[in-house]
Amino acid sequence: MISIELSTEILEACPSLHVLAVACQVRNTESDERLWHEILREEELVRASGRLEDVNKWAPIQATRQAYKRLGKDPNRYRPSAEALRRRIFRELPLYKIDTLVDVINLVSIHSGYSIGGFDADKIAGSTLCLGVGREGEPYRGIGRGDLNIAGLPVYRDEIGGIGTPTSDEERTKIGLETTSLLMIVNGYSGLDGLLEAGRYAVDLLRRYVSADNVEAELICREKRSKIIL
Fold first, then answer.
1. Are strands 181-188 and 116-120 parallel, antiparallel or unpaired?
2. With b meaning 16 or more CB within 10 Å and e meaning fewer, what string describes 212-227?
3. Residue spans of beta strands (DSSP E) within 60-150
4. What pLDDT sits at residue 74?
5. CA angle, residues 113, 117, 121, in degrees to nearest 5
6. Residue 94: phi, psi to the nearest 5?
7. What are the tens digits of pLDDT across the range 153-171?
8. What is residue 120's DSSP assignment?
9. Residue spans of beta strands (DSSP E) within the chain
10. Taking Cα atoms as reference points, which of 196, 200, 191 lies closest to residue 223?
11. C-beta of residue 118 within 8 angstroms of C-beta of residue 184
12. What is the C-alpha to C-alpha distance for residues 131 and 6, in angstroms, rounded to an integer?
């Protein structure tokens, strides 16, 4: 598994941060109708559980927004992806169908409130990712967004540059139908509570819909890192 490092600047701003990394082999496909039935059921549960104006008060989303503010980013202009997905649901806007693997990751994000990085691990340069803070003028092409100003955003970097923020992942390492090696990173700015449950939910979906195999998982925080079984 690719090693995840947490920079001092992130840990000083976000001391409760826990990161769950999951790596596995997958067989991706075009969007799966069985999965979309699950997504539609989740949409119904979301609409029944609250209101649009309360989306940003849910602990995982609220904590991610607070991290943005501490790092100098406006979370209303650069919404975390989990918040953006839930807002689409409350506004009765259709979710995007991408492919089965991306759709699974989006479902986990909607269900759990965590903004999740999903990467083709074979496209990552080097053996380590470091979570730091975006800099002014740092080049970054968000998936489907074009050039994105990531200054003040938490950003995972490989040997070449940034590949993931809670707002959008980068084009260079995006998942496609050809993806066979997945790295999924669940970012718990609200701490450990609920994180492992989200991981188990994700692994169950990955096994059922993209035949996930050789699953490895690691939990990383300020104090330690540990291999875990989900």
1. antiparallel
2. beebebbbbbeeeeee
3. 116-120, 128-133, 141-142, 146-147
4. 96
5. 150
6. -70, 145
7. 999 999 999 999 999 999 9
8. E
9. 3-6, 18-25, 116-120, 128-133, 141-142, 146-147, 154-157, 162-164, 181-188, 213-221, 225-228
10. 191
11. yes
12. 5
Q: Which two tokens stand for residue 188?
A: 């718990």
The per-type count for the chain, helices as H runs and strands as E runs, is 6, 11
pLDDT classification of 172: cutoffs 50, 70, 90: very high
Alpha carbon distances (Å) from 195 to 61, 190, 220: 13, 9, 11
Residues near 140 by beta carbon (within 8 Å), at least 6 away in sequence: 134, 147, 148, 149, 150, 155, 161, 162, 165, 170
User: Within 13 Å and on the Cβ side, how many CA atoms surround 118?
Assistant: 27
Read off the pLDDT of residues 198-213 as tens digits, 9 standing for 90 and up: 999 999 999 999 999 9
Round to whole Å and give the CA distance between 203 and 206: 5
183 residue type, one letter: L
194, 112 Cβ separation under 8 angstroms:
yes
Give me 158's structure tokens. 């490989």
Contact of 82 with 138, CB cutoff 8 Å: no
Structure token digits, residue 153: 């955003």
Q: What is the pLDDT of residues 99-124, one digit of tens each?
A: 999 999 999 999 999 999 999 999 99
Which residue bears the tokens 């559980």? Answer: 49
223 vs 187: CA distance, rounded Å? 16
How far is residue 158's CA from residue 123's CA, in Å, rounded to a whole number? Answer: 10
